[in-house]
Amino acid sequence: MSTAAQEFLQQAEIKASDLEHRALIQRGMASYESAFDKGRARFADWEAARARLSQIKEEALASLGQNLVEFEKRIVERGGQVHWAETAEQANDYVVELARARGVKTVVKSKSMVTEEIHLAPALEKAGVTVWETDLGEFIVQLRQERPYHIVTPAMHLSRYQIAELFREKLGENVEDADPAKLVAAARVALRKAFFSAEMGISGANFLVADTGMVALSTNEGNGRLTTSIPPIHVVVTGIEKVIPRLSDLAVFWPMLATSGTGQPITTYSTLVRGPRTKKENDGPREFHVVLVDNGRTGLLGNAETQEVLKCIRCGACLNICPIFRHVGGHTYGAIYPGPIGSIFTPRTAGLREWGHLSYACSLCNACKGVCPVKIDLPKQLLLARRDFVATANVKPAERAGFAGFRWATASARRFRWIGWLGGKVASTVRSIGLSGTSFDPTRAWTKYRAPIEFPRQTFRAWWRSNGKR
Amino acid sequence: MTRKVAIFVPCFVDQIAPQAAIDTVTVLRRIGCDVIFPEDQTCCGQPGFNTGHWEAARPCAEHFVRVFSPYDTIVCPSGSCTSMVRKHYPELLASSPLGGDAVALGQRVFEFAEFLVRVAAITDVGASFPHAVAYHPSCHGTRELGIYDEPMQLLRAVRGIDLRPLANESECCGFGGMFSTKFGMISAAMGDAKAVSLEKAGAEYVTTIDPSCLMHLGGIFGATRRKLKTIYLASILACMDGTAASEARL
């Protein structure tokens, strides 16, 4: 078993039985669900919108290279720079080198999962640059030196009291009654200073628009606009799959992203940026860089079976509906992207051998498939990842032997009856001599959490033979 | 005219929960079906398929196709196993010589409640079950096969039944096949959350179209010393005298 798999099991054991955590997440998700339902009801035809979004994404991926080149051309025409990074290291090196060359001491960041994925902030800090996360949730988890718990709501695992305590400790602010408005105000004071002292702003991108060469950003706090307009240098770090063909496509993407993510009709601040300030403009960055990150994505793109994984717009709907996410929470996965999409994306891009276990951390309930706004067949992708995990990696010998036995027994009724008889005998013997649930119990994986199965006096087929036929 | 129906009894139902299949036979006969149990059957292959062991699942699925191909109508007391045949065989057997037969067979395999309501057009089988019951819409039955109204119609027609609405009814019970043993702690937590909802609903019994959910939930109820009981849908429908004479052994 890989180290990541062992850690997952340890963390899951703790979180699954943590009833306070369960209650906190259930409350959060109940309010999300009611907002999401209301949000979907605003659409004249939600299913038609899903189909359209899925189709545009398929079209975008089919000509991904052309779309990116067109995007690059327009950015460069306006004096911006585009850097293509095949690996996380290449992307980080580019940004760190740029910061060094321009004498950058302070960076403000708006929320970006890709920068988490490539560990950009630690790379900058190692080079002596101070990095401020400016999304409130990200700011909170940064103060706690934690990873985001959720890709849309990074601090959803914390109560306002925990946040008030954190602010007291780290910012020296005493917030009365942990009042949410006052907590926001305290964070704002700290962040405003950072915005005006930073020499570089780093953002992600929700979409890259090919035909107009624009970067589309959605934020609810306005921190995206401050990050991209105040500091003299703006660097966009984003995955290559974020490109969409046309500006007009945003008419569907923006409301669908907002509704799927939070239930909002549209995110509060929807921003489009397209380059450094021109001679006629009084504000905006003087330098504009876009770093296009591959980091394993072309591997998904090049395979017809897995290409649809790149349709993901990182709305978080599949996490929110996922019963496994709801019980173990975002940190347990040990990966940057938790929940169903992460349990596909991580093994596929960071390695099946180390991360394949995540594809099994799913009961195949299919709830995610029903909510994905771009119609990714998530359960199917999880099954495919499992199939490939079995073919290439780290399967326990006992499991392999078990399925060799399964293959042998289920292709013949005679063998199947015999194995069934044997299994039943073993299980009832274990039970009758009082070994159920102990380490001598071969069914311990079941009985550790459940009452042992009561085996019937006769199987169905025995009943059929004796009196079922009539 | 009597209808000839072959039943597919999932492997674990055969071995562990035979009463679910016995009651299925009882109800099918009551509505006039001539029931056949092809004795060469084994399993649908889902345990191997869902765990990624497609090479182990394929001969099992091929065996299934060979055994059931001669029959026009196949009824199965499990939404999940029905879904395996209808929804996943086309992929699993895509390159098998039996692939074409598998696709055709998928259209002739019906989950039990689906068969009664959609095929046989029967909603009242004359059952009586005066107990507080909550229906758990199992994941594969509901989301893969779109079966929800059918079991509800059947339950509403049961005399004396007190059907309780269940909060978060469509949330998974936590079984998930091998998931229940690979990630037992998560599976158990999900089962516990379902048990809490069932208790809040005031249910005495939980029923569904998938005996596998009940096998897991029954284990959770036992381990957490809850009074809740499990009963498979056909076992409710088989009851005519108002007592759970044939309570599914789950």
Percent of residues in beta strands of chain B:
5-15%
H and E order of chain B:
EHHEHHEHHEHEHHEHHEHEH
Q: Give the number of helices of chain B.
A: 13
Which sequence of strands runs across the widest sheet of chain A?
1-10-7-4-2-3
Spatial extent as radius of gyration of chain A: 26 Å
Find the structural class of chain A using helix and strand composition: alpha/beta
Query: Which chains share the greatest interface?
Result: A-B, 64 and 69 residues
General shape of chain B: globular
Binned strand content of chain A: 5-15%
β-strand number of chain A: 10
**CA-based gyration radius of chain B:** 17 Å
Overall average pLDDT of chain A: 95
Cα distance spanning the termini of chain A: 51 Å
Taking the alpha carbons of the first and last residues of chain B, their distance comes to 35 Å
Q: DSSP helix count of chain A? A: 23
| Model regions low in confidence, pLDDT < 50 over at least 5 residues of chain A | none
What is the helix fraction of residues of chain A, given as a range? 40-55%
- Which range best describes the helical content of chain B: under 10%, 10-25%, 25-40%, 40-55%, 55-70% or over 70%? 40-55%
Q: Which residue ranges of chain B are poorly predicted, with pLDDT under 50 across at least 5 consecutive positions?
A: 245-250
